């Protein structure tokens, strides 16, 4: 069974989905089924149950929101993908809170050529476990915030939160 919990955040509810203590999806939505339908058919076949407390993942989220910016790093995650995508997701987890990288830099950190920036962008777009796999920390080299699956205002808030420049969600 996939267990889900909603955790309130300043930018809206964060749905956490976990299987046997490993986070398989997380996203800024009030409806956990929006994340559930993005899982593999094998995981979907296990069913979804909303619970009151997922334990460590929910505690880490609350700690992160309270200012412990490294709290999410300790939570185990698992998501599907090619070996290249898995390398990119692992490199994303190593980008420290309060810092950002470009797509080309992310590719380089994953041991791929800088020309793999497009693959890095795809890995971010397909990331199922935000903000635990922090694709919000990747910015276009040309400036601005670029896109974000949950909307640019959420990305802006996450970056501001991590840099100590709190701002109101809007």
Automatic annotation (TrEMBL):
Protein's UniProt keywords contain Methyltransferase: yes
GO BP, sorted A to Z: DNA repair; methylation
Task: Indicate the segments forming the Methylated-DNA-[protein]-cysteine S-methyltransferase DNA binding domain, all copies.
Answer: 84-163
Enumerate the InterPro entries for this protein. MethylDNA_cys_MeTrfase_AS (IPR001497), MethylDNA_cys_MeTrfase_DNA-bd (IPR014048), MethylDNA_cys_MeTrfase_DNAb (IPR036217), WH-like_DNA-bd_sf (IPR036388)
Alphabetical keyword list: DNA damage, DNA repair, Methyltransferase, Transferase
Supply the EC number(s): 2.1.1.63
Reactions performed catalytically: a 4-O-methyl-thymidine in DNA + L-cysteinyl-[protein] = a thymidine in DNA + S-methyl-L-cysteinyl-[protein]; a 6-O-methyl-2'-deoxyguanosine in DNA + L-cysteinyl-[protein] = S-methyl-L-cysteinyl-[protein] + a 2'-deoxyguanosine in DNA
Q: Does the keyword Chaperone apply?
A: no
Q: Which GO terms describe its molecular function?
A: methylated-DNA-[protein]-cysteine S-methyltransferase activity
Q: Which PANTHER family match?
A: METHYLATED-DNA--PROTEIN-CYSTEINE METHYLTRANSFERASE (PTHR10815)
Name recorded for this polypeptide: Methylated-DNA--[protein]-cysteine S-methyltransferase
């Amino acid at each position: 069974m996939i267990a889900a919990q909603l955790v309130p955040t300043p930018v809206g509810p964060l749905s956490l989905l976990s299987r046997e203590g490993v986070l398989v999806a997380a996203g800024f939505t009030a409806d956990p089924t929006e994340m559930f339908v993005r899982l593999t058919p094998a995981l979907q076949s296990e069913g979804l149950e909303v619970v009151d407390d997922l334990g460590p993942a929910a505690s880490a989220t609350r700690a992160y929101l309270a200012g412990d910016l490294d709290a999410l790093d300790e939570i185990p995650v698992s998501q599907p993908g090619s070996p290249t995508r898995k390398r990119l997701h692992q490199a994303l987890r190593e980008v420290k809170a309060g810092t950002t990288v470009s797509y080309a830099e992310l590719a380089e950190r994953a041991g791929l050529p800088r020309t793999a920036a497009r693959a890095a962008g795809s890995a971010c777009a397909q990331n199922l476990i935000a903000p635990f796999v922090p694709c919000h920390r990747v910015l276009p080299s040309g400036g601005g915030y670029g896109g974000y699956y949950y909307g640019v205002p959420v990305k802006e808030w996450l970056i501001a939160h991590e840099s100590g420049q709190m701002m109101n969600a809007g």
